[in-house]
Amino acid sequence: MKHTVLLMLILVSMITITGCTYTNIPEPTQMATEMPTAKPTATPTISATSTPASTPRDGPAKVTIEGNSFVPDTVTISIKDAVQWTNMDSTPHKITIMGMVTDDLGEGDSFVLSFYQKKTYEYSCKYHPYMKGTVIVQ
After folding, report:
1. Which CATH number belongs to the domain containing residue 26 in this structure?
2. The domain containing residue 92 runs over which residues?
3. 64 forms bridges with which residues in the sheet?
4. CA-based nearest residue to 23, from 95, 76, 101, 79
5. In angstroms, rounded to a whole number, what is the distance separating the alpha carbons of residues 46 and 92?
6. What is the distance between the alpha carbons of residues 56 and 38, in angstroms, rounded to a whole number?
7. What is the mean pLDDT of each run of 10 residues along the chain (138 residues)?
8. Predicted TM-score of the model (pTM)
């Protein structure tokens, strides 16, 4: 009887441990939805200008995080295009957009998000709420 109870406790513990994983970024999909797909990436250092940018057809629109600011703070892209945020600060940041929060972005870390609906999206930093930006999807 003791062995059965012990075996049941071990089994329940294993199921609990393996079944309780969580990620705050949805898996990428090919289907057009209200919620865009999200995909963290590790890319080299990227620079951007302080004027609004649009997405070139060969890659995502680039936004850097510098001096606790999004540079540029507004980007305009086409539907199905993406934005890549890269943290150039030594302090971590978390991007909050459409109710979703990224993992910590350390210095040099990037986050890419594709957009599938024509709309204006406001975003901010979870740690620094005064940091705000806009993605305009046309």
Report:
1. 2.60.40.420
2. 2-137
3. 71, 86
4. 101
5. 17
6. 19
7. 54 46 41 41 34 58 98 97 98 96 97 97 97 98
8. 0.60
